[in-house]
């Protein structure tokens, strides 16, 4: 199977969360077809095995049942990975979903559950895989974020918050582990064709408040017009990730992917600059009157 990137070697072990459907499943199937060894995690192991199909076999594929919000479950999956393949080279934190609806409509439980998978699941994987990568002397971590990590979307405050968090934790993590040869970055897609906008991955609030009819209209239009017709090809997104691995990229923090992502991001950056210019003359004059600049160390 031909890749759009020159793959020099397939002698790497990939660990991918949320692998039984959507983009994660396509990643697993294509990586196996390219010749890599792949570990896929899912809450339903048999569903994952059935979905991957004949491209996965005992030599190149390991399916593991994992509850990402349970740290012991995550730790056990990494131990199984090492027992099977002896190492982990590339980690893709892909699992995630969206709770939508106006913020007032989201219960505390709704939001916490969304954070459990999208954010705390990532923390659990990184906390436990980092000692492995450190001991190996390197590795790659790709946290699947979104263009929604930098652009707010009405009706998606919980999801936006989780992806803003993923970007922030990844930036800090990347700085911490760079001395150990570990490269970490976010992948921030626009709209890519997957099951993300379907039930189970895109969860609507149960009890809508009539006052937010405009927000509901935006959400309903979004799902009816975009779901199943996203312009991005997940296989080409995977090839971007493989390219970063092949180039041994240690300079990139975020890879925004998709022709539709770039106008969103550039517009947001322009807005940031407008806000900075508007308030700089006031907001930079907030030092204490008795503040003394520390002397630079010689």
Automatic annotation (TrEMBL):
InterPro entries: NAD(P)-bd_dom_sf, Sc_DH/Rdtase_CS, SDR_fam, SDR_oxidoreductase. Keywords: Oxidoreductase. One of its GO terms (molecular function) is oxidoreductase activity. It comes from the Eukaryota. The keyword Oxidoreductase applies. CDD domains: 17beta-HSD-like_SDR_c. The keyword Transport does not apply. It holds the Pfam family adh_short. Belongs to the short-chain dehydrogenases/reductases (SDR) family. This is Short-chain dehydrogenase/reductase family protein. The lineage of its organism: Eukaryota, Amoebozoa, Evosea, Eumycetozoa, Dictyostelia.
């Amino acid at each position: 199977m031909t890749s759009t990137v020159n793959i020099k070697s397939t002698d790497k072990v990939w660990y991918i969360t949320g692998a039984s459907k959507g983009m994660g499943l396509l990643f697993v199937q294509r990586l196996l077809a390219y010749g890599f060894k792949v570990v896929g995690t899912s809450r339903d192991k048999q569903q994952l095995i059935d979905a991957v199909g004949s491209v996965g076999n005992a030599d190149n594929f390991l399916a593991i049942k994992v509850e990402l919000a349970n740290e012991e479950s995550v730790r056990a999956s990494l131990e199984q990975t090492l027992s099977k393949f002896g190492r982990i080279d590339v980690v893709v934190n892909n699992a995630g979903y969206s709770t939508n609806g106006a913020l007032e409509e989201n219960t505390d439980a709704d939001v916490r559950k969304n954070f459990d998978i999208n954010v705390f699941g990532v923390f659990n994987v990184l906390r436990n895989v980092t000692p492995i990568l450190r001991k190996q002397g390197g590795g790659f971590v790709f946290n699947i974020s979104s263009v929604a990590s930098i652009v707010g979307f009405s009706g998606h405050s919980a999801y936006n918050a989780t992806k803003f968090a993923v970007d922030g934790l990844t930036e800090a993590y990347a700085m911490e582990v760079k001395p150990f040869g570990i490269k970490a970055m976010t992948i921030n897609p626009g709209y890519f064709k997957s099951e993300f906008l379907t039930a189970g991955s895109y969860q609507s609030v149960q009890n809508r408040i009539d006052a937010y009819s405009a927000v509901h209209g935006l959400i309903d239009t979004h799902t009816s017009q975009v779901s199943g017709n996203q312009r991005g090809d997940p296989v080409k997104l995977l090839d971007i990730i493989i390219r970063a691995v092949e180039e041994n990229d240690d300079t990139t923090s975020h890879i925004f992917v998709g022709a539709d992502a770039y106008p969103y991001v550039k517009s947001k950056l322009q807005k940031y600059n407008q806000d900075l210019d508007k308030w700089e003359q006031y907001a930079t004059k907030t030092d204490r009157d008795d503040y003394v600049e520390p002397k630079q160390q010689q």
